[in-house]
């Protein structure tokens, strides 16, 4: 019985805490910043070497195949990540002394007005990303703010995702795009001369979301579910006409674990301007030796 209680307590101690929501500040102590991203740690965790990193940054380091500590360069006896609760508490106390972060609408206005100023754009993106997950209400507020003016906010986020200063900040921009990507699916099936620019914007955003490593699988599945739920023939035709970025989206649909995606993809679909149903070519099977 004592062993069972001890095991439960141990599991509670090592359970990953909810990510910390905090934007960077000039007064932020260096110890609060991740050695990899140089940003304030949202969920500080320690390696066996004693070095502490933000969970998302060190996890990407480990997932890429590294088995050394980035700071000390020492080999890792274990890749277990232990939450640094004391440091997290100190970061929380420091965050309480900072001015409130801007609302999603204010951050988007700052992003739109930051042309030629990468630091200002990154600050706005970081502020928006800090409001995404795990609280669904906060994520919905960001999605609502972006969706209110897709034609200006999405190009700004795409531009930053392609040329932002830091890798983590660029991933944050794509994570923000993921909150509204499903709402851009109707652009792929609309008629009209004004749709061309919107189709290009929508396909680029979807390709960025589906190919990014920092976007959750749930967000990718949600986008693919919406893509295959409507007029699949027109969606396929539009993606094929979009060039390489459209191919990225099509490949994501083909390899998706979403059950309905596999079923709909195997059905013949009627392409626009064609009298004959078109069936996607089946994926080649590897021969067994």
Automatic annotation (TrEMBL):
The keyword tRNA processing does not apply. It catalyses: S-ubiquitinyl-[E2 ubiquitin-conjugating enzyme]-L-cysteine + [acceptor protein]-L-lysine = [E2 ubiquitin-conjugating enzyme]-L-cysteine + N(6)-ubiquitinyl-[acceptor protein]-L-lysine. Pathway: Protein modification; protein ubiquitination. One of its GO terms (molecular function) is ubiquitin protein ligase activity. It comes from the Eukaryota. Its EC number is 2.3.2.27. The keyword Magnesium does not apply. Transmembrane segments: none annotated. Residues 261-289 are annotated as: Disordered. Residues 276-289 have a biased composition (Basic residues). Residues 27-101 form the U-box domain. One of its GO terms (biological process) is protein ubiquitination. Keywords: Transferase, Ubl conjugation pathway. Functions as an E3 ubiquitin ligase. This is U-box domain-containing protein. It comes from Aegilops tauschii subsp. strangulata (Goatgrass).
């Amino acid at each position: 019985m004592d062993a069972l209680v001890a095991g439960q307590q141990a599991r509670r101690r090592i359970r990953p805490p909810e990510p910390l929501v905090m934007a960077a500040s000039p007064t932020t102590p260096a110890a609060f910043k991740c050695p990899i991203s140089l940003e304030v740690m949202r969920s500080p965790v320690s390696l066996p070497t004693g070095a502490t990193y933000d969970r998302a940054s060190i996890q990407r380091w480990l997932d890429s195949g590294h088995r050394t500590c980035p700071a000390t360069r020492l080999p890792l006896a274990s890749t277990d990540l232990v939450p640094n609760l004391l440091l997290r508490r100190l970061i929380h106390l420091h965050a309480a002394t900072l001015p409130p972060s801007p609302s999603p609408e204010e951050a988007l206005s700052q992003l739109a007005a930051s042309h030629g100023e990468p630091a200002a754009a990154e600050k706005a993106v970081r502020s928006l990303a800090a409001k995404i997950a795990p609280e669904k209400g906060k994520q919905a507020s960001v999605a609502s703010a972006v969706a209110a003016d897709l034609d200006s906010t999405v190009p700004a986020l795409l531009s930053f995702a392609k040329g932002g200063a830091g890798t983590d900040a660029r991933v944050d921009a794509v994570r923000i795009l993921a909150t509204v990507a499903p709402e851009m699916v109707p652009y792929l099936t609309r008629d009209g001369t004004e749709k061309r620019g919107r189709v290009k914007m929508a396909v680029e955003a979807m390709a960025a979301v589906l190919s990014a490593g920092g976007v959750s699988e749930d967000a990718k599945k949600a986008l693919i579910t919406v893509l295959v739920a409507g007029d699949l023939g027109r969606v396929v035709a539009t993606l094929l006409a979009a060039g390489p970025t459209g191919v990225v989206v099509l490949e994501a649909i083909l390899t998706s674990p979403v059950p309905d995606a596999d079923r709909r993809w195997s059905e013949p679909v009627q392409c626009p301007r064609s009298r004959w149903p078109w069936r996607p070519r089946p994926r080649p099977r590897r021969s067994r030796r």
